[in-house]
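tmp note - Glycolipid transfer protein domain-containing protein
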Amino acid sequence: GKSELRVAMEELCLLSPGDGEEQEQEQQLRSSTMDLLCVSKQLLHVLDEIGPTLLVLRQDIQQNVQRLQDLHARDSSKYATLTAIVIEEVEEGTSKKTNSCTRAIIWLARSINFSVHLLERLMKNPDSSLKKMVEEAYNSTLKPFHGWISSAAYRVALGLIPEREIFIQLLMGNCQDPEDFGGDVMILVSIVQPLLEEINAILVKHQLDRLKST
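out:
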């Protein structure tokens, strides 16, 4: 059987890059906007498995996915890359506005970063409670950028976190082998990392990486 993470990776269509020239062409044709949307939608799928616990995070991701998707649908070649979207909004002076697509990109990247931190902790700390690991992942990725309203909502969500074993079973899905699952986690992290680095580089360049919410 397959774990939820393996299903996510196969959906991301990134598990089997071609070799040599074929891979280079593929990289050029790949759309970082589509990559981010695809990863974010898979994250929503995983959050759905956990249930209503992280509803705050789920709603946030859903809204940002929709905003970015709507823009991309208007002109998929013009908005194929995240860099193009950010540069346009920076030049228009709208990048820091509440409903900008730049903000959507920032928060989607942060949510994915939170998830990556959480998955890595799951693998490295087999004895820690899920609540503790969610809290640590939250503190190091999302909390620095949250105002008191968002922080309060997360504190409520933390109280509803399921047991570690239940969470892992949900993520494992039909996969019966913990070692296979651990391998899936590491592969998924290695797939998502370059996208996060690309987004961070764009944001740092335009001094947008420290934007906060309410």
